[in-house]
Design goal:
The chain is an alpha/beta fold. It contains twelve helices and 14 strands.
């Protein structure tokens, strides 16, 4: 494992994330205009990583987030408990009519040549009201936190959420925790209150405090204002475009010690080629490539991040960490929902070249 990250060996929590919890309505392969029923998945880019690390990788994790006192909040809180994640809630009371609300995501799975369709209702979202001062970071970090994580979707929700991330990042760094951030650039969210210029300003002030970045070349360019790629990738599986912008990114943010992303070539909704890469302290690492028969693609990137972080937290080499992330992300696409149903034994076996032969 790279010594550059200097990960604390012990802590009450191995991992803490800050972000928004959402519930995703999933009608399966039926588009919403014809749907008669939906499954409900609890999600959130930051929460997903904490949930995966707790449930699959058996680490002690937590999530700092908003929670609303109404039945949807109860449903989401139950799933947080079920995944083994310790909650740190800023609680809001629902007025029975308008909110504040726990955000809803609507996402069918598509099929074959028909792509998945995703849309949102984040109106009057409680998490968007979170602001600096809402959490007692000193108390949380004094108990011991090895790794702190947040993401660009949460940063984009309002003018206060990015400031809260910066407050938390500063507290995490002061306490000696490793910090990570998933850029997850979403143009629609930023356009509501400032557009790309605002995104570049807010994200730059966050990334100043970040050790490990997650994001592809588009995230790095649009989210951090890095100039266009030097190399035109021949394939989505070609990491050259990603490597081309990393040099510029780490020159702009010399505090960043690692950058990681997935590589995905979509042949159809249910058939993807899948790989992953990471840059760590000037060296690059690439996973094998596999063919995925996708059940539900949502959450695959968070699955990779969780496996990659687990590898680093557990003392694995950088190459092993990339392979663990690649393996877990691949397995996650074989389950419905946004969070893991895999076991750490399955992840390790596939990372070492396991097969889909029946286990008797």
């Amino acid at each position: 494992m790279t010594s550059a990250l200097n990960i604390p060996q012990t802590g009450a929590l191995d991992f803490l994330s800050l972000g928004a919890l959402v519930h995703r309505l999933d009608p399966g392969i039926i588009p919403f205009r014809k749907a008669t029923h939906c499954d409900i998945h609890v999600s959130g880019g930051e929460f997903n990583v904490a949930a995966n690390l707790a449930d699959c990788f058996r680490l002690n994790t937590g999530v700092a987030t908003a929670m609303v006192d109404y039945p949807i909040g109860d449903l989401i809180a139950e799933r947080v408990r079920a995944m083994g994640v310790k909650p740190f809630y800023k609680k809001f009371k629902h007025d029975g009519v308008r909110g504040p609300n726990m955000a809803a995501v609507y996402s069918d799975r598509g099929q074959g040549v028909r792509a998945p369709v995703v849309f949102y209702n984040r109106s009057n979202e409680a998490a968007a009201q979170l602001k600096p001062g809402d959490f007692n970071w000193k108390e949380i970090f004094d108990a011991g936190v090895r790794w702190f994580h947040s993401g660009g979707i949460f940063a984009a929700l309002s003018e206060t959420t990015g400031e809260l991330i910066i407050e938390a990042m500063k507290a995490a760094k002061a306490a000696g925790a490793v910090t990570s951030f998933d850029l997850n650039y979403r143009q629609k969210l930023w356009d509501i209150w400032g557009g790309q210029a605002k995104a570049v300003d807010v994200l730059a002030r966050i990334v100043e405090h970040v050790d490990v970045l997650v994001g592809n070349e588009e995230d790095l360019q649009k989210g951090l204002g890095i100039e266009g790629q030097d190399v035109e990738a021949k394939s989505k599986l070609d990491p050259s475009a990603f490597y081309a912008v990393i040099e510029k990114a780490v020159k702009k943010f010399p505090n960043v010690k690692a950058v990681a992303t997935t590589l995905r070539e979509v042949h159809s909704t249910n058939r993807h080629s899948w790989a992953a890469v990471a840059w760590v302290s000037g060296k690059t690492y690439q996973s094998p490539t596999c063919e995925l028969d996708v059940v539900d693609r949502v959450g695959g990137g968070d699955g990779y991040a969780a496996g990659f972080f687990y590898g680093l937290l557990s003392g694995a080499s950088e190459q092993e960490a990339v392979n663990l992330g690649w393996s877990h992300g691949a397995l996650l696409t074989t389950f419905p929902g946004d969070t893991t149903m895999a076991t750490v034994e399955q992840v390790k076996a596939f990372a070492k070249g396991g097969s889909a032969r029946i286990q008797r």
